[in-house]
Design a protein that fits this description.
The protein is of the alpha+beta class and 195 residues long. The protein has 6 helices and 5 strands; from the N terminus they run αβααβαββααβ. The N terminus is likely disordered.
Amino acid sequence: MKLTTLCLVLAVAAAGVIGCATNDGDDGSWTTVAEADLTPAQQQQLDRAMEARKILFSRLSTKLKSTLEEAGPVEAIGVCKDAAPVIAEEVSEEHGLRIGRTSFKLRNPENVAPDWAKSVVEDRVSENTYLAGPGGELGVMLPIRVQAPCLTCHGGEEDIPAEVQASLANYYPEDDGTGFTVEDLRGWFWIEVGS
């Protein structure tokens, strides 16, 4: 669970993955909605979003765990880079929504937040956040916190083994996904569900 959780949270949690993120052009009409104020339709959208996140997390963690056990953390970084976006795209298609991860300190530059989510990222909102879109969409932002095993890839320089540092430099030359400590906000899962 140690290293698995690390790379799982690394991959699924915030660092750079799930590359379904596109910027749609926010016209300012997305509004924050309290969970207690969600309409029945929005609650159904939230249920779909939570199920998709659960499946994404499960698939990615399974892939990471097997890679960690068979090949170690250096190889697991490749899973985060290559397999995670594919898994995210599959989940997006299967559930008819968009799902990804983002952070204020990106590892993968393709994980930029969708426009509707940028204010949550900029403000580093640390609780679940729901936004209603102009066409009946629901945007969901679910925080990801750093766990102890995550430090192997996301900690300070003293936490990250030299071989992992070298692999990160190879896969992510402009990596900004380090320097975290346990319980820090690492980023968010974002999910956008159409009406």
